[in-house]
Amino acid sequence: MITRRTALRAGVAAGSIVGTGGMLLPVVNAAGTGTAGAAAGAAELDPVGIAKFTQKMPLPPVLTPYLNTGTTSYYRMTLKEATKEIVPGIRTPLRTFNGSFPGPVIKAESGRRVVIKQTNSLAVPTSIHLHGAHVPQDSDGAPMDLIAAGGGTKTYTYPNTQPHANLWFHDHAHHMESENVYRGLTGTYILTDDIERRLRLPSGQYDVPIALRDARFLENGELIYQMGDFMKRNVIMANGKAWPYFEVAARKYRFRLTNTSNQRFFDLHLADNSELVQIGTDGGLLPAPHRTETVLISPGERADVVIDFSRYPVGTVIELRNKEIPPYEPADAVSKVIQFRVTRTAADHSVVPDRLRTLPALGPASVNREFDMKMDEQPGGTGAYINGKTYDMDRIDTEIAYGATEIWTVTNSNKLAPHNFHMHLVQFRVLERNGKPVTSGPETGLKDTVPLKPGETVKVQATFDGYRGTYVYHCHLFDHGAMGMMANMRIS
Asked: What is the model's pTM?
């Protein structure tokens, strides 16, 4: 069994405190856990010296089901090693779904079931979690519900009874999830419905999924993985390429952004600070568009954003950038994300209406609970906790009555480290942030992951129905979850 001791033996040891993307995190030193070449003293690739915006951003492949019935679409995926060019001219070994990096896209419809058989040909165990999905316990991808290495299989059933949502899937094998995701085990799952289809939002080739993340490399292209070394992961990727460009027409585009980083927060803006229109978040469309200059997404969160390139003449080059770069990171590297090149004109009949959807009214809550997230910040500390406890697969931390509506108050009691909070099974509504009601902006939609800066408190409301069973809630900064910042809830 994979245990917390496994991770600690791997060298997780808290040290000093530094920050990422404007957020602060404890440094952990995982010497001996990372790349063999790194341990042997091989040279590390300098991100500043990598040529920027020379690679075209690819689109992730859309999977086709091998069988469709009247109610169900059936897929097969194989988890396997693959080698891809991420940095120009260099090949990188990865762990992938179907040999694809970025991972594949599944397009699903509300009310139509999806069944996926996953075969794990990797040398490590895995557990595939469909992040943000309302699914039965046996298809949730629980941390200890493992697919054996070397050919093990598991079939996951996704009923898709929830409304449209921007979901994603990734490994969740406890103490392995951090490295498996870092090495490539992510993919996109777009769930749509009639509510979304009736709107004339940008569609087809103008509806583009983008997975954002960071990484660290040796000069030979090999990834360096060490838990908590986020301050050295200074190569920024979009759809599996380091600092790519993307050619666009002078019209509106819809970008479905997913932060697949282990720990990096992205605070995105266009170089000219022109308008971004956020139309959706984790659980689908917002009630109304949020017009802004910046979009913040923490690890695991999604942001559905429309950019209107018709304001730029053909020939314009404009960058999507990352704000608030800590002083220890190379600004010439981590401030850059994607370069958009306006190369042509195109007809545009899409619109972003003033109203996108109507969310049901919040009902009364019968239970109020409080949760404290904290990790050791002192030198030598190794723990990460929810309500003072590290994760134990055999312990039920929260008993919930089936059908109950509850309000959870979640606090990050660290002074320096950020966290975020992710619940399996349910989408929730954010009621308050730091005691102030949430009445506008991206947190007015359905959420499953919410960021908490040091000292922050959020209050969320969820209804626990549809399925009974044991599910987890945790920090979605993968290294924090792997260190124990996770707990079990049982709905019965």
From this structure: 0.93
